[in-house]
Specification:
The chain has 193 residues and is mostly helical. It is built from six helices and no strands.
């Protein structure tokens, strides 16, 4: 393995460690914020952060000794995590809409999701650059997971802002259902590959 490949692997692991740390903090913070605000979208986003923790751990494992079998196992684990997230959020979102559940949006949820969107978009770009240079499908796939995390943060932010600003209570569970769409899309992409 060349010095350049080793440097790129270390960069990939570094990006995953940053992602992992951010999401560990995010899971704890989102659990508190979801409980305080009774937000389906924040709860779903917290669960997505758990998946991101698992995905980052899998990529770090794969980058430490990459081979085709490890890559296949890593991709399948990430795909199944997305399927579980989609199933849970679909039920949660439909129940919240059916019952007319009203969340109580809070500034903390708005601030965290806005900051998370910016951080995830930056990390996704870094993973794409390193993954392309390494020609590593697992890092590239997990980079798409991070990009989806940024998109989800932006959609959750929009749902919370609409509820906070205009009192559109249904925007919160709809934002949670957006996560279902992206989770299913990513799982299909992973399993087709």
């Amino acid at each position: 393995m060349t010095d350049e490949a080793l440097r790129l692997r270390r960069s990939g692991i570094g990006l995953e460690i940053i992602t992992l740390g951010w999401n560990v903090v995010g899971v704890v913070l989102l659990a508190m914020l979801a409980y305080q605000s009774s937000s389906v979208a924040l709860l779903g986003f917290g669960l997505d952060s758990l998946i991101e923790i698992g995905a980052s751990t899998v990529v770090i494992w794969e980058l430490t000794d990459t081979n085709e079998l490890r890559q296949q196992v890593a991709l399948r684990l990430i795909g199944w995590a997305f399927i579980l997230l989609a199933a849970y959020l679909l039920v949660q979102g439909v129940v919240a809409l059916g019952l007319g559940h009203h969340a109580t949006p809070r500034i903390g949820g708005i601030a965290w999701t806005a900051l998370t969107a910016v951080v995830m978009f930056a990390l996704a770009w870094g993973k794409w650059v390193v993954g392309k240079r390494l020609n590593n499908p697992v890092l590239l796939t997990e980079g798409r997971v991070t990009l989806v995390d940024g998109i989800l943060a932006a959609s959750v932010l929009l749902g919370i802002l609409l509820d906070y600003t205009f009192g559109w209570w249904w925007a919160d569970p709809i934002a949670g259902l957006v996560i279902v769409f992206y989770a299913v899309r990513e799982a299909i992409h992973i399993f087709r590959a």
